[in-house]
Design goal:
- With 476 residues, this protein is an alpha/beta fold.
- The chain has 15 helices and 22 strands.
- The chain has helices at residues 2-11, 43-60, 65-81, 83-94, 98-122, 155-169, 182-194, 209-217, 230-242, 265-277, 294-309, 329-344, 376-379, 395-403, 418-427; strands at residues 23-27, 34-39, 126-127, 135-142, 145-149, 172-176, 202-204, 221-227, 247-250, 255-259, 287-293, 348-351, 354-355, 363-364, 366-369, 386-392, 407-408, 411-414, 434-435, 450-451, 454-455, 468-475.
- It has a 7-stranded mixed beta sheet with strand order 12-15-16-11-10-18-19, sandwiched between helices.
- The radius of gyration is 23 Å and the shape is globular.
- The N and C termini lie far apart (64 Å).
C-alpha cells in the first residue's frame, strides 16, 4: 500500500490529500522511519462523525456572538501555550526546520486575533435603503457543517485558515487532513475540546476517498474548501457542482517574481531566495519563476545563486539547519524527475542540485536558467528548492513570461520606478501581487487566485462569505 501511495504521489506530488489508502501513515521524512499508523474511519464512524458535527452546529449557532468570542479567545490562549508541541509534531511529520514550524504554529494566533477583533463588524447588520420599506438589512448567518480538505505543507495553518472564520460565523467544521500529517491536525481536536467548544464542533476526519465523496453528497455538508492540486480541485468541484454546494479552491501556483532594471537588486535577490526556499520550496504562493530584465540580470543572478548555495541541509531539529527534507521520498523523486527532464532538454545549471543519497527525502537546492516550453518545469509547479531564472529584454517581455502559465495565484514586482512597477503589476493575471515587497498571505486580505489556481477567497473580510448565508431582511 505504501508503494501504491508513493507511485500516485510521484505522478502528482501536490495531490497528497486526494490519495487515500486503508490507513494513513505518517513517516519522518528526515529518516524515513514510520511515526504512526492511523486507521481510516469505518463507514459507521464516518457517519457518526458527520452526525455529531451537525448536532454541534445546531448547538453552536444558537450561542450569542459574545459567547463565540469568549471561546475563541480561550482557544487562542491554549494554542499559545502549546506552540512547542505543535511545532515539534509538524517538524516530525512534514520535515520543515523547527524554527519554521514554530512560525507556522504561531500564525493561527494572528487569525484568532483578526477574527476576534473584527467579528462584531463582520457579523453586524448591513443596512440598505429601498423605497417602500421602513428597514432593509443583510446579515451573514451560519449554514451548517463545512468540509475542509487540507494539504500537508502547512497542516496547522491551513486547518485554522478554514476553521477560524467558520467557527466565529457559527458553522461546524470537519477537516480531512493529508495522510502524511494527520497527527498534526488531530492536536487541534484536543485544543478545541480543552477550550470548551461543543464536542465535535471541530473534528479531524481520517476519511477514505469514498467517504469524502459521500460527505459531499450528504445534505448536512453545506460547503467545501480544498487546498491542493488542480486535479483534486476539479474532481471535488465537479461533485460539489452536481450537489449545488459552494466551494473554495486554492490549487497551487507558479508565481512570477519580476525584477526590473530600476530594482534594488540586493533586496530583490535576498527576498526572492528566502521566499523560494521557505518550507523547502513547498509553498503554493512562493515565487517559483524569477524573471529578471537584462540591465540587472547578471548582478541579480550572482546574488540569487549565492543565497541558494549558502543553505545548510540537515536535521530539521538542528538550529543550524536552514533546509530540511522534502515532505516525503515520493515528492523528492517527483521533483528530481522534473529536474532531470529540464537538464536533458538543455536547461543550464547555474547551481547544480538534486536528490541526496540516504534514507531522508533531502534535495540539494538548484538554480536553473534556459527553461523552455519543451520542459516540464516551464508548465508545472515545482514543489521544492529549485530556483528558475528567466532573463528577458524588458518589462513587456517579463509580463509575457509571467502570464504564460495556467496558474494565477500571486506575483511580485521589484522596481524603484513605481509607474513601471505598477504597470507591470496591473498586467499580471493573478489574484494577488506585491510591489517592492513579497505579499504572501496576510490574514487581513482575501487569499486566492485566478485560472487553475482556483476559485473563491479565504481570509480577510471575505473569509466568511463563501460559508455564510448572506440573508436579507426587509420590513415594510
Amino acid at each position: 500500500m505504501v508503494d501504491q501511495l508513493a507511485a500516485e504521489l510521484i505522478a502528482n506530488p501536490t495531490d497528497v490529500q486526494a490519495v487515500t489508502a486503508q490507513t494513513y501513515r505518517t513517516l519522518n521524512p528526515a529518516t524515513g522511519e514510520l511515526v504512526k499508523v492511523f486507521p481510516t474511519a469505518t463507514d459507521a464512524e464516518a457517519e457518526a462523525l458527520l452526525s455529531h458535527a451537525h448536532e454541534a452546529f445546531l448547538a453552536w449557532k444558537a450561542v450569542p456572538l459574545a459567547g463565540r468570542i469568549e471561546r475563541l479567545r480561550r482557544l487562542s490562549e491554549i494554542w499559545s501555550a502549546n506552540i512547542d508541541r505543535i511545532a515539534r509534531q509538524v517538524t516530525t511529520e512534514m520535515g520543515k526546520p523547527y524554527g519554521q514550524a514554530v512560525y507556522e504554529a504561531s500564525l493561527p494566533l494572528e487569525m484568532f486575533r483578526y477574527y476576534l477583533e473584527n467579528a462584531e463588524t463582520f457579523l453586524a447588520d448591513t443596512p440598505v435603503e429601498i423605497a417602500g420599506f421602513s428597514r432593509v438589512y443583510t446579515r451573514r448567518e451560519p449554514i451548517g457543517v463545512v468540509l475542509a480538505i487540507e494539504p500537508w505543507n502547512g497542516p496547522m495553518y491551513q486547518a485554522i485558515r478554514a476553521a477560524a472564520p467558520n467557527i466565529m460565523l457559527g458553522n461546524a467544521i470537519i477537516v480531512k487532513p493529508a495522510e502524511i500529517t494527520v497527527g498534526s491536525t488531530l492536536i487541534i481536536d484536543e485544543l478545541f475540546a480543552e477550550a470548551g467548544f461543543p464536542p465535535a464542533l471541530f473534528q479531524t476526519g481520517v476519511l477514505s476517498r469514498d467517504q469524502v465523496s459521500r460527505y459531499i453528497e450528504d445534505p448536512r455538508i453545506r460547503a467545501l474548501t480544498l487546498t491542493g492540486s488542480d486535479r483534486a480541485g476539479a474532481a471535488v468541484a465537479e461533485q460539489a457542482g452536481r450537489n449545488i454546494k459552494p466551494i473554495v479552491l486554492e490549487l497551487g501556483g507558479s508565481d512570477a517574481f519580476i525584477v526590473l532594471d530600476s530594482a534594488d537588486v540586493d533586496v530583490a535577490a535576498g527576498t526572492a531566495a528566502v521566499c523560494r526556499l521557505a518550507l523547502g520550496g513547498q509553498v503554493c504562493v512562493s515565487p517559483k519563476r524569477i524573471i529578471v530584465t537584462e540591465g540587472v540580470a547578471d548582478e541579480f543572478t550572482e546574488r540569487f545563486v549565492a543565497a541558494f548555495s549558502s543553505q545548510v541541509i540537515g536535521d530539521p531539529f538542528d538550529p543550524g539547519t536552514t533546509l530540511g527534507p522534502l515532505s516525503n521520498m515520493a515528492a523528492a523523486e517527483a521533483l528530481q524527475a522534473q529536474y532531470d527532464d529540464a537538464i536533458a532538454k538543455g536547461a543550464i545549471e547555474l547551481l547544480p542540485g538534486g536528490r541526496l543519497p540516504g534514507a531522508g527525502a533531502f534535495f540539494k537546492p538548484a538554480v536553473l536558467t534556459g527553461i523552455t516550453p519543451a520542459m516540464r518545469l516551464y508548465h508545472e509547479e515545482a514543489f521544492g528548492p529549485i530556483g528558475i531564472v528567466f532573463r528577458v529584454k524588458d518589462a513587456d517581455a517579463a509580463i509575457v513570461i509571467a502570464n504564460d502559465t495556467r496558474y494565477g495565484l500571486g506575483g511580485t514586482v521589484y522596481g524603484k520606478d513605481l509607474d513601471e512597477a505598477n504597470r507591470v503589476a496591473k498586467a499580471l493575471d493573478t489574484g494577488m501581487v506585491g510591489i517592492n515587497q513579497y505579499l504572501g498571505a496576510p490574514v487581513e486580505i482575501p487569499f486566492g487566485g485566478t485560472k487553475a489556481s482556483g476559485v473563491g477567497r479565504e481570509l480577510g473580510s471575505l473569509g466568511m462569505d463563501a460559508f455564510a448565508n448572506i440573508k436579507t431582511y426587509a420590513i415594510g
